[in-house]
Amino acid sequence: MASRLSPVFLSCSVAAVALQANADSISGTVENAGKPLASVVITAEPTVNGKPSSANVNPVTMKMDQKGKEFVPHVLAIKVGTPVYFPNSDDIQHHVYSFSQAKRFEIKLYKGTPSAPVIFNQPGVVALGCNIHDWMLGFVFVTESPYFAISDDAGRWTLDLPSGDYQLSLWHPDAAVELPPQTLRVPLEQSLHHVIDLKMSRRTGKPPGTLQAEGYADGF
Amino acid sequence: MARLLTNTVLLGMLSGAVTAAENTSEFPNFTLHGVLDLRYQIMDAQSGELQHGLGKFRSGAEGDRLRVNEAAVVLQTRLSWDWSGTFTLKYADKQHNPLDLTEAFLSYRPVSTSGWRIGGRVGMFFPPISLENTGTAWSSPYTLNSSAINSWVGEELRSFGGEAQLSYQLDSGDRLGLFAAGLANNDATGVLLAWRGWSLQDYESTLQDRLRLPDNIGIRSLFPRQAAFTQPFVEVDGRPGYYVGLNAEQANRYTFRALYYDNSADPSAINNGQYAWHTRFFSLGLKAELPWELTLISQGISGRTSMGDIKDGKRAVDVGFWSASLLFSKSFGNHRLSFRHDRFGTDENDYLPQDRNSENGYAWTANYNLTLAQRHQLNFEVSHINSNRPARASLGQSSNQEETLWQVAYRLFF
Q1: What residues have CB less than 8 Å from A126, skipping those under 6 apart?
Q2: DSSP string, B354-386
Q3: pTM value?
Q4: Among all residues of chain B, which has the CA nearest to that of A126?
Q5: pLDDT tens column, B214-232
Q6: Which of B47, B276, B282, B315 is the most buried (most CB within 10 A)?
Q7: pLDDT score, position B174
């Protein structure tokens, strides 16, 4: 069922579950070299006297689709313990795997056949690959914080937060340097704006642009 | 009751088998890729390999030519989650068998959920030397004519055997790997480098191929047992060869590859008109993604090939060879502009000075290509080679030659 819902909708629903009394909304934009930057994960950690505290939120299920020989979305942000479905919308097999510290797994995806969800029970960044299509690359950002969002194609994000003090962090798979966390107090009147420098060469996770490049593999 | 139980168990097994069959019925599956390459050439060049000459292009001394340069089909079959097969069947202009295999191998590539990864290939495949020929059927996205090194790889090098790879990779995509291979059917490798010399072309020899040796430079009188052609992929002495190498990659930034190759051939062996050439070399390659989306590819090779009996401590033919290339390429959307400089040379240290196998030279190649709808590629290319080969005197030619080849190609990839 969850697999039919769009990731954007699901992200929103996580934020909705997190909605509590006195909630306020903070929002912002992220850019790189003057252009909106998508797929930035924004995390807000509540701090009480400078110490993080976590709200108790039941994780919902999420999905990371294989569509057009790429992971969709490229970056998925989830709370620790969230089951993630890996549907396969292509009419070919995919062999999804990760050897990241936060979650090591492999899952064989026959075309059109659903498989059991993968539960991500450790915080961290999980890089995903496909053993059949080398260029495929996706990320699951697993956080302990109940408050997180992902910037959209226009670089915009919104977080609903109860009033209080927070530590805000930004993460992007191609960020050249990690931005230092920022402390803020909610409610916050102004919108936030961040600039992220990206690495010079980036792996997009998309199929090669030409059939010439896609038609040969020497195993190296 | 027991019967019911048996039936249930049987039914369960059957449904299990059916489910398994459904799941595995996806294998084997097949993917087809290929290329059709139509070429128009204007040349100012000496006779090449096609005319038994010492020219530096595949063909020369011909009028302008319009032809099907190549048509190749790559069948990729996935046999299981870990095993797949790749078969490249090719037609090329003046190929010995109109349709023949350039590669045919099985790959083993199990998934790894740790940083360590193993893999391997068995069959007939290109040794991992070229960093330019990464496209369908070993085509290059950068140029039509391959570099001197990769032209030689296309003509005379193919692995017949098995290759094993071991690598360690990081989440970032960076990896470091070692590979090694055991080889057969590579004893004639080196003959063209010695007797014809380096060349610039884009012909990949096939399984049963025969390539022409230069005429009228004394080869047949000095070596009467040598056939008029070379069969690049024959086994002469029954001794296996090998290569070992290292591969290092920083994801999308740098690729570095080093390889040592030795076909371990017995230089005194001959069979059916084909000598065994003891060929060994070092190969280095670097690919770097530079600022302004500029790609740099540089390769270098240095080695020796020896053949024949020994007199006064020297072989009948003993040729040292080396080459280096530097390519810069930049893509602007669908457009790509590439420039390459090649340098090459051979020297000899054998007891037959009348068999002149030394040379040196350099080449420039400039290519512009436009790819539309991911599959239609229009190429404009010019290659210019300046070389000196004393053996040309036997043909009544000046040993210094300048040769130029203009090419327009339409390539269809599917």
Answers
A1: A98, A100, A102, A103, A120, A139, A140, A141, A142
A2: TS---EEEEEEEEEEEEEETTTEEEEEEEEEEE
A3: 0.90
A4: B171
A5: 999 999 999 999 999 999 9
A6: B276
A7: 93
